[in-house]
Amino acid sequence: MDNNRNGKVGMTGVKWISAFSLLLILAAIVYVAYLIKTGQYAKVMNSVQQLGILGIVAGVFIQAVLNMLPVPGEFSALLLLEVYGPVWGGVYAWIGGIVGSIGGFYLTRWVAKPHVGAVKPALDKMEEWLNRYGDLGLLMIRFVPFVPYHIVNYAAGLLKVGLWGFAWTTAVGILPYSIAMSCLYAGMRNSPWVWAFVLGIGIAAAVWLFFSRRKNVVLDRK
């Protein structure tokens, strides 16, 4: 009874935090649009750069919070790319993604454990698959199309997944996406056709890798 009550309170808290985060994102978008319109955008970006390590930590923290909650984190990632460039901005967004995924991993254990009953069969099946393929299976889940980033974090939190295995598979699993975002940003800023070609090659390689891995898994099951 107490667990159910605590779980409901936790879920309600997460919903309110998510809604508040979305409002903050919308407010930030409006503010950036205002800065661009008034010509103050470059000045503000330079001021953020002048904050040094404090600005970096704040940016990574914001990215982590957005990635921990079921809200879009692309806007803050783009701001990191804009302030720190496609290389370091991409690195900071990637770090924020890892930290946020670990936060979501533990957040799920706090708010969702009392509500596992309805999805327990699906989780048991996923757990069986992870037990069979280990960390490699968890890594492959990151590359499955149409499986949201947040869902993997939350499911792993509900299952018996070790923190180290979850952390390194997340780091590797979201790396292609982080690189793709950095390349896309750099292409928009500099040479669109060159970077579009590179990005296309990267996506094609990722698709080929996914289907080849999936074929191997099917063969192993047989």
TrEMBL record:
Topology in the lipid bilayer: Multi-pass membrane protein
Keywords from the named record: Cell membrane, Membrane, Transmembrane, Transmembrane helix
A Gene Ontology cellular-component term: plasma membrane
Residue stretches spanning the membrane: 16-36, 48-71, 91-112, 163-186, 193-211
UniProt-annotated location(s): Cell membrane
Pfam family, one: VTT_dom
Span of domain VTT: 71-180
Family named by the database record: Belongs to the TVP38/TMEM64 family.
Stated name of the protein: TVP38/TMEM64 family membrane protein
Origin organism lineage: Bacteria, Bacillati, Bacillota, Bacilli, Bacillales
